[in-house]
From TrEMBL:
<dbReference type="InterPro" id="IPR018300">
    <property type="entry name" value="Aminotrans_IV_CS"/>
</dbReference>
<dbReference type="Pfam" id="PF01063">
    <property type="entry name" value="Aminotran_4"/>
</dbReference>
<comment type="pathway">
    <text>Amino-acid biosynthesis; L-valine biosynthesis; L-valine from pyruvate: step 4/4.</text>
</comment>
<dbReference type="InterPro" id="IPR001544">
    <property type="entry name" value="Aminotrans_IV"/>
</dbReference>
<keyword id="KW-0100">Branched-chain amino acid biosynthesis</keyword>
<keyword id="KW-0032">Aminotransferase</keyword>
<keyword id="KW-0808">Transferase</keyword>
<comment type="similarity">
    <text>Belongs to the class-IV pyridoxal-phosphate-dependent aminotransferase family.</text>
</comment>
<keyword id="KW-0028">Amino-acid biosynthesis</keyword>
<comment type="function">
    <text>Acts on leucine, isoleucine and valine.</text>
</comment>
<dbReference type="InterPro" id="IPR005785">
    <property type="entry name" value="B_amino_transI"/>
</dbReference>
<comment type="pathway">
    <text>Amino-acid biosynthesis; L-leucine biosynthesis; L-leucine from 3-methyl-2-oxobutanoate: step 4/4.</text>
</comment>
<dbReference type="InterPro" id="IPR043132">
    <property type="entry name" value="BCAT-like_C"/>
</dbReference>
<keyword id="KW-0663">Pyridoxal phosphate</keyword>
<dbReference type="InterPro" id="IPR043131">
    <property type="entry name" value="BCAT-like_N"/>
</dbReference>
<dbReference type="InterPro" id="IPR033939">
    <property type="entry name" value="BCAT_family"/>
</dbReference>
<dbReference type="GO" id="GO:0004084">
    <property type="term" value="F:branched-chain-amino-acid transaminase activity"/>
</dbReference>
Amino acid sequence: AQQYPDHIWQNGRIKPWAEATVHVMAHALHYGSSVFEGIRSYETPDGPAIFRLTDHIKRLFLSAKIYDIAIPYSLEEINAACREVIRANGLTKAYLRPVAYRGLGGFGLSAETPTDVAVAAWFMGPYLGAGVLEQGIDACVSSWQRFAPNTIPAGAKAGGNYLSGQLVAREARRLGFGEGIALASTGLLSEGAGENLFLVFDGALHTTPVSAALLNGITRNTLITLARENGIEVVERDLPREYLYLCDELFMCGTAAEITPIRSVDGKPVGTGKPGPVTARMQKLFFGLFDGSTQDRWGWLEPVSG
Ligand code: PMP
């Protein structure tokens, strides 16, 4: 059974986990009207740090802006809540989940409801399973497409978007795959159920553009920055499905998935069928931020003790 942490932050204070409840008629429960973030904290030589906390909370506010969800706290207050909930649960390596949602206050689609805000934190290992960071996963292309850009904005990290993600992820698991990859409504490659994609050709990284109905991932941005800094070419471009089968290496990235190699797609081996050298190099650069072997020149590690 799922183990829950003792404490959670909700609407301004830390409370026992069991007390952070929502009314069954809350707007968000019916209509998907929530915005959220997924953030990780790591142990570092300088103590526990939250990775790109401020950038994640900025994205939370941008997601809320798209849907006119008024967040009754400042960015600084939500940052502080993230730190507080980690400390209250005695966590170091954790996953943080801030969420702002339309609460109880009206049943119409455009009802002016109050916004409730919560931040949870719990220990989380590799998202796609034990050993996947080393061994990689087998992925498939989903029969479900991502939503078109003029339907639901993929650039907002909103609750309702994750109906699409659930279809992609559950279909993949049902068919025995580790994760599903979706095509955009254009037919071009988009992203994983909850991860961005990087393909490797001749030592260069190729990643799909935000126009392909994907979330502008903070891990994606981190890897683009680290790669360029280290002389690895990065190309953002439209990519057709078959390039998944033709590339030398392939990996998914996201806060939860970190850098997960993909060793096959639709039963076809990617490259040698094993995680390759560029993927390993990106993992080393990324995880090096947390053991100190990659210098954090960008202020991405925000101390929990803040
Ligand atoms: N795409 C989707 C659909 C996601 O849910 C996520 C996870 N937030 C990502 C990409 C990766 O984004 P990030 O690196 O900011 O976690």
